[in-house]
Amino acid sequence: MRNYEAMFIFNPELVEEKLEKEIKSVEKTIKTRGKGEVKFDNLGKKTLAYPIKKFKEGVYINYRFTAQPSAIVKIKEALKHKENILRFIIFLRGKEK
């Protein structure tokens, strides 16, 4: 198992309840495919450097989780077509100190 971090940018126009539902949906997807513990931080709404899908702002959510390397492809595939996710990136984290 390796440590990963993922940054998601969600649609800024989502109402609070819908945003929470989307955050939990992503968490569940990572848990079921990654088989590890998932933690996340809501970093709030921020202005984007450039428009993404015609939005100038996005809600940033940072996830930290453990997973097998083979699970990352499955996680990306499951999440890439979700309409309320503007953009996301998953990267390998260094060892915890």
TrEMBL record:
GO molecular-function term, one example from the UniProt record: structural constituent of ribosome
BP GO annotations: translation
The reply on keyword Ribosomal protein is: yes
Matches recorded under CDD domains:
bS6
| Keyword Ion transport among UniProt keywords | no
Which domain of life, per UniProt?
Bacteria
What the entry lists under InterPro entries is as follows: Ribosomal_bS6 (IPR000529), Ribosomal_bS6_sf (IPR035980), Ribosomal_S6_plastid/chlpt (IPR020814), Transl_elong_EF1B/ribsomal_bS6 (IPR014717)
- GO CC terms in record: cytoplasm; ribonucleoprotein complex; ribosome
* Keywords annotated in UniProt: Ribonucleoprotein, Ribosomal protein, RNA-binding, rRNA-binding
| Similarity section | Belongs to the bacterial ribosomal protein bS6 family.
> What does this gene product do?
Binds together with bS18 to 16S ribosomal RNA.
* Name of this chain's protein: Small ribosomal subunit protein bS6
Give the originating organism. Answer: candidate division WOR-3 bacterium
Per UniProt, what is the name of the gene that codes for the protein in this document?
rpsF
